[in-house]
Write a structure and sequence with these properties.
Strand content: 35-45%
Structural class: alpha+beta
CATH topology of the largest domain: Outer Surface Protein A, domain 3
Order of helices and strands: HEEEEEEHEEEEEEHE
Shape: elongated
Number of helices: 3
Radius of gyration: 21 Å
Strand order of the largest sheet: 11-12-7-13
CATH architecture of the largest domain: Alpha-Beta Complex
Distance between the termini: 62 Å
Largest sheet: 4 strands, antiparallel
CATH superfamily of the largest domain: Ribosomal protein L6
Number of strands: 13
């Protein structure tokens, strides 16, 4: 049995949980999230906690046990605290700005790249080089941050590009001269 899956998920007072079969709806101060869990698990609301258990001891049920517990725990944390992902833009002339809700990134191309956020995601820019992606859904925040990074991934020779905050870029030596 999954060690992660065994742990009950504590539900804060501000959070409201609705269960309909395998469909889970969690409402909190930051927003509302809905997800339908895959077959093979049971979810139950006991006092101030959610408990997820496998239906049987089959391999598929055991695999999904820990996954579903993590997904629901991320939903609870998202509606209470929210998630943020920070990116840094490195390079001369590379910058970002927010126009309305849209993020406009100038990353060395002949045109600025515009990123329109999906519902529930907000962009913030600090000092033209630090972008913050925030929202309630952990998966959506991570995907949007990855899309922004993919505009100009960091290159290994000079380290220019868009990288996650704290990401270490392993640098390569350039060409060596003739001997």
């Amino acid at each position: 049995m999954s060690r992660i899956g065994k742990k009950p998920i504590s539900v804060p007072d501000k959070v409201e949980v609705t269960l309909q079969g395998l469909s889970v709806t969690i409402k909190g101060p930051k927003g509302e999230l809905r997800r339908t869990l895959p077959e093979g698990v049971n979810i139950s609301h006991i006092e101030n906690s959610l408990v997820i258990s496998p239906v049987s001891e089959k391999r598929l049920c055991r695999e999904r046990h820990g996954l579903c517990r993590s997904l629901v725990a991320n939903m609870v944390e998202g509606v209470t605290k929210g998630y943020t992902r920070k990116l840094e833009i490195v390079g001369v002339g590379s910058r970002a700005q927010v126009k309305g809700k849209t993020l406009v990134v100038s990353a060395g191309y002949s045109h600025p790249v515009e990123v329109v956020p999906p519902t529930g995601i907000t962009f913030a820019v600090e000092n033209n080089t630090k972008v913050t992606v925030s929202g309630v859904d952990k998966e959506l925040v991570g995907n949007e941050a990855a899309k922004i990074r993919a505009i100009r991934p960091p290159e290994p020779y000079k380290g220019k590009g868009i990288k996650f905050e704290g990401e270490r870029i392993i640098r390569k030596a350039g060409k060596s001269g003739k001997k």
